[in-house]
Amino acid sequence: MTVTFANPHRGRGLDLDAPFPCSDASGVMQLLGQCPAHAETALLDLPELAARCGVAQVYLKDERNRMGLGSFKALGAAHAIARAAADRVVDNAWQQALVGQTYVTASAGNHGLSVAAGAALFGARAVVYLAETVPESFAARLRAKGAEVVREGLDYEASMAGAEIAAEVNGWTLLSDSSWPGYVDLPYLVMEGYLQLAQEAATQIPQPPTHILLQAGVGGLAAAVAAHARRTWGDAPQIIVVEPEAAPALVESIRAGAVVDTAGPVSAMGRLDCKTPSMIALQGLARDADLFVTLTEEEAATAVTTLADHGLATTPSGAAGIAALLAGLNLPPEARVLAILSEGPEDA
């Protein structure tokens, strides 16, 4: 690990013009109860991995098959779209609730699939902007879910700019999983959707965790789970946020006490390779997280191999939380660790 930084804002947060993340899962649970694709995902108890890492227990929340979309992101954008459908549905005709509505987003991975699936479920149209570097196999998966795919630029930031322009020009709804000044309402709902996995884990785990490892890109998943953990278990668990060293957006923003744009090479942790944090996520993690660490590319790759040896196929992004423990994060031998296996392999 290249950076380990204790959060000086813990318990207070930052003076940002953004709300704190939602911590109450009841709303998303109620909506998901009406979704036929919804099913609880497993919490895996991995004693052999715990022994290898020198801790008492390791629990992994396995999101690789969430709602048939391959990652936790299935809970995010689809939840925000479902909220809009709930406001408009007439005579229980859910599949027609959002006819005429177009959602546009940029995606480096699974967020686009959630937008596509959510739009299709309620009769809306989905347009997903992809950078030229995103594999065509992923574009094909998006099209199979009914989305229109537009290629724009060489990186995520360029595709995001294209999506923003398209939304403004065409009157479409921009649905990002990040937030910035003046754009917080929909990302707040996206993050609220992630509370479902946090609530499930809290009911599945036999004892409260002592340490929670959360991988982060813009930070939406990490902030949502951290907010729920504080609501459920208070100050007891140590919450550790894990980022690629190539994209240390959260740790540098925490260090600066404000949103910071970072720069770095392209990371193999593609879903975490975000150079600017979500403002809502930063607000929440400044209050709730205890420690920020960054991973090398080699450490993430080693974690993928190690998890594969345990029959758990994933990507560098999916393995990044537990990778910090495997890379030598110093935890006490009695530690009970909770982490998230956030996505399946890219060729799944």
Describe the structure.
- With 348 residues, this protein is α/β, with parallel strands linked by helices.
- It has 13 helices and eleven strands.
- The strands form two sheets. A seven-stranded mixed sheet has the order 1-10-9-8-11-3-2, with helices on both faces.
- Helix 9 (220-233) links the parallel strand 8 and strand 9.
- It starts with a strand and ends in a 7-residue tail after the last strand.
- The relative contact order is 0.19.
- The model has no long low-confidence stretch (mean pLDDT 93).
Short account of what is shown:
The chain contains 13 helices and 11 strands. It is of the alpha/beta class and 348 residues long.
Key descriptive features of the protein:
single chain, 348 residues, alpha/beta, 4-stranded parallel sheet, 13 helices, 11 strands, 15% strand
